[in-house]
Amino acid sequence: MDAMAIQAFGGVEQLKPMHLPNPQPHDDEVQIEVHCAGVNPVDWKIREGYLKDAFPYEFPIVPGWDAAGTVSALGQNVKDFKIGDRVFAYCRKPKIQWGTYAQYVTMDAAAVAPMPKNFKFAQAAAIPLTGLTSWQALYETAHLKTGQHVLIHGGAGGIGSLAIQLARHVGATVYTTASEHNHGYVEHLGAHHAIDYTVESFVEAIKRLRPEGVDAVLDTIGGKVQLLSYEVIKPGGVLVSIIDPPEAEVAARFKVRPGYVFVSPNGAQLRNIAGLIEAGAVKAPKLKELPLKEAAAAQEQSRGRHVTGKIVLRVKK
Ligand SMILES: NC(=O)c1ccc[n+]([C@@H]2O[C@H](COP(=O)([O-])OP(=O)(O)OC[C@H]3O[C@@H](n4cnc5c(N)ncnc54)[C@H](OP(=O)(O)O)[C@@H]3O)[C@@H](O)[C@H]2O)c1
Does the CB atom of residue 311 touch ligand 1 within 6 A? Predict the structure, then answer.
């Protein structure tokens, strides 16, 4: 199969076209013919070696954890899918090697879900990693509810594009940080208040908009942004980070519950997200589509930290 892959950790020049064997499904796996692969910041972080102590790995490494495509082969225990089904999946496996910047990927069938019927492959490939992260952070960890107020950092990015919509769906009031040119986009996703973090401190903005503080913050930035976030959360509220686990002592000082999510594959949650999409409660993020051979350019754009929505690679010609 054709793939974009690396033989060593390093700069973007490591990402090269390669011809590799098709991965074959184990008994509980499906093989997916990838039509489109979503690009996420973790892809360039893996290429640069940032996760090499977190997961076992083997070269060549095909990056990419998001896929939308059709089922092309089935393991003998798989009953829920048939050849040709249109599916999407977050394809993180125990070992980093065979990702989705390739014509074929295999994944545990329990992590795969039928694609939303109203979505094209490119739209579906933009959903799994960001949708599951947002679900696990806002619903499973923050337990966000109707009537609560939530600050989502980086609302125009991949995570923000799904998190704003899931927060809005449960009836929360949504505050989000974004550059001014992205305010129309985050409002279109459902944000009630857009804060231009490049000209105003988000702490001052929340103090003005919600003096009693918010119930929850989703930290997609880390560092100083995480520390400052405590100042806008009311006592008894929750700080969920997807960057650095919040320190328990600092959280206790602010009477805030700390949470951290590293997203797990989950086919049942992905089916729920597909249901919300089909019901019209969640729309596709703004997309930039590039051919697979431009994966290096896609990762460079992602590395710049100012993608609006998602970048998706077209794998099937
Ligand atoms: N733990 C996990 O499971 C998990 C899962 C997914 C992602 N992540 C991590 O979460 C982070 C966000 O992921 P993503 O996919 O959303 O990335 P992304 O799409 O690259 O995010 C881009 C967005 O970040 C915004 N941004 C940059 N600096 C900002 C700041 N100081 N304050 C507010 N917004 C800022 C930009 O806003 P403007 O252009 O509007 O300025 C842009 O819209 C990445 O580091 C990623 O690796 C972790």
Answer: no
